[in-house]
Amino acid sequence: MCGIVGCAGRKPVAPLLVDGLKALEYRGYDSAGMALSQEGGLLVLKKKGRVTTLENEIKKMFPNGTAGIGHTRWATHGEPSDENAHPQVSENEDIAVVHNGIIENYAPLKKWLIEQGYKFTSETDTEVVVHLLSYYYKGDLVQAMLQAVSRLSGSYALAAMCATEPGKIVCTRRESPLVVGFGKGENYLASDVSALIKHTRDVCYLGENDVAVVTPDDISLFDCDGNPVQREHSHIDWDIAASEKCGYEHFMIKEMFEQPQALKNTILPRVTEGRIRFDGIDEGFLRSIKRIVICACGTAYHAGLVGRRWIEDFSRIPVETDIASEYRYRNPILSPDELCIVVSQSGETADSIAALRTFKKGGGKVLAITNVVGSTVARESDMVAYTWAGPEIAVASTKAYTTQLSVLFMLAMELGRVKGTLPQSKYDGLLNELLKIPELASKTLDLSSYAKIAAKRHYTQSNVFFIGRGLDQPATMESSLKLKEISYIHSEALPAGELKHGTIALIEKGTLVVAMSTQSALKEKLASNIKEVKARGAQVMLISSEDTEKTMDGVDEVLPLPKVEDELAPLISVIPAQLFAYYCSTLRGYDPDKPRNLAKSVTVE
Length: 605
Ligand code: F6R
Prior knowledge:
With 605 residues, the chain is α/β, with parallel strands linked by helices. It has 3 domains: 3-236, Glutamine Phosphoribosylpyrophosphate, subunit 1, domain 1; 242-435, Rossmann fold (3-Layer(aba) Sandwich), CATH 3.40.50; 447-592, Rossmann fold.
């Protein structure tokens, strides 16, 4: 939800800001803009549309400002337009602000500011921040910021500049991420490190309510009372290639093909001497767990639904998987012997963070499964099991999902082992099969041409239904989400047995039904459901391993999987569906990396 980047240096900074905004575009792409501190005041440039539109404007102007703040927007308050684009500026254009988040009390503040004589020119909540800064500004932007934010409620990462303090950027955050980066003769800030990685690997994540002052020579940090504070530095060791396309047409396809390596990186370091070991997760603690709640959103929620089945099956610990935005508001029953697992690729999803905080009030421990070191979810959890998927840039999650599954699978096995509910021979067998998963993911990707051919046949569909049973059921939910979010084809996933309780009314001649069948015990039941939709004229596509495909009557085409043990199937069964979604999206002429209306990191509720 909106990306912020800033740099204070000694050379023209616009190209660096454009580059940073491109890296952050996954957070929103409704408009882009920047404010530069130049001789004579602030230069503000902003445009509706993608960063390249802004870039083309900038190329005509050669701006020479050496400090600046940039923004790429995912619209919340006010439609995408030049006026609502950030930076938002004060009436005489001497203060500029970029913002990620939502100012929840913007309406009363706006009313009050209008009473004080301020005029509003946009529909954004951000504009109240600019006018508050003007109201409090008495020659010191830090003091004005401290006073302004004391009146805000909601979530924000803010960066501001003032014409009378050239070369200085003041930024702060509450419930939205912000990182500062240390360079040589220039210093930086950004919503996440992907915007900074070309310039520095020495970064510091701002704490809640911290204020940072970024100048070419220094970054000073203060708490919300204006007292100096020190924060730990982090070193970013990502490979730059990981945040570039490396010859692939889109990040999404690159990231799908990175799944074997990502799975290897996530699984292998945790397997030693025939056992799974999680750093920082105590065996005694695992043994003491009586209940588990998994909280997450979107794709990560789907991973949690699969995880629930594995944990209950292997360890007999009752698990509920809840959508984070519902959990936080439903007065959950909290208990100190319950474990909350928060699954979040970004570690910055507002609802997942709120669910985590809600859970913590009951005194239980939180385990984070996240892909981003130092993210809010990682920092606020008691234990972290990282997915080592590398940066995921495409908005639609792929490698983060399969690596989340791998962590949940290993955790389920460990819980089963310490609880004594998973016999040693079964544990050894599952571990053996788990170690084959990166290779099986690779084999599944080798079969991508099937998905491409199927997409050519079906990309004009307007409705697709996914059905499955057992472990295939949550896997089809993720498959369906992939298709709808990047191809804009309406799609739904249903437990196969549930279809006849209403939704079958929508099946007509030619409707595509994708059936997933990886669970041998449920094969026959699914076969009956396939017959039911076939009898209503559906075209049936089956995702299954070769053995199953031979036994299924009425199937029109197959997206094949290599042979995989039933329990581990979700780790690869989504891959053909990811590929199918990707090819449908590109055949329909869309950009799968930046689906409309979506942002990668949902930092507002
Ligand atoms: C869909 C997708 C989203 C995210 C969701 C949660 O492809 O990526 O549904 O899974 O927004 O994001 P994280 O995992 O960052 O908390």
